[in-house]
Amino acid sequence: MTAETAVLSRHRLPRPYRIGLAVAWSLPAGLLMGALLAGQGVNAALLDARLLVPLGVMLLPAVYIWQEGVDVLADGLVIRVHWPRRRDYAELARWSLDAEALTVWDRAQDKALEVHAAHLTDLAGLVRALDEHLEEVHGGSFVVERKSPQP
What pLDDT is stored for residue 135 in this prediction? Predict the structure, then answer.
């Protein structure tokens, strides 16, 4: 890993929730395999693609929940929401943080990232990195919109 691609910080769903959700999504596949092993023991039928493919599909949400989040790099962000994608700071135009969500727009005014603020660890660190890097790349041309929570 080079210095430019080294991850400076990771922002994910807090660990207890990530573990709980990954276990919950993995539980049906585990119960099915446990029932098959208890009923028939270890045999060649457990290696059948008609069993392994649905088990793999059942585990996809657990993998997605585990990797979902934002990685801060020296020269951009790796956004792992739906599909992993890399966005350089030069592509980003502005960001906004309100009571519920962090939103980052690109130069074409499309949303590059929209995530619920409570779903990220160290939100302050991510906001600090956005503030620091967007200011550095764009010379202070970013827009910070902060709204107070409505009663």
Answer: 52
Separation of CA 36 from chain center: 33
Q: What is the CA radius of gyration of the chain?
A: 20
pLDDT of residue 140: 44
Extract the residue ranges of the chain whose pLDDT is less than 50.
1, 136-151
pTM of the model: 0.71
| C-alpha span between 18 and 39 (Å, rounded) | 32
Taking every pair of Cα atoms in the chain, the longest distance, rounded to a whole number of angstroms, is 67
Query: Starting from the edge strand earliest in sequence, which strands make up the sheet with 101-106, in order?
Result: 111-116, 101-106, 92-97, 144-146
Three-point CA angle 78, 13, 68, nearest 5°: 40
Question: Model confidence over 49-58: pLDDT tens digits?
Answer: 999 999 999 9
Do strands 92-97 and 144-146 pair parallel, antiparallel, or not at all (unpaired)? parallel
Separation CA 105–CA 146 (nearest Å) = 15
Instruction: Convert 76-92 to b/e letters by CB count within 10 Å (16 or more is b).
Output: bbbbbbeeeeebebeeb
Host H or E run for residue 1: none
Domain edges within the chain: 1-151
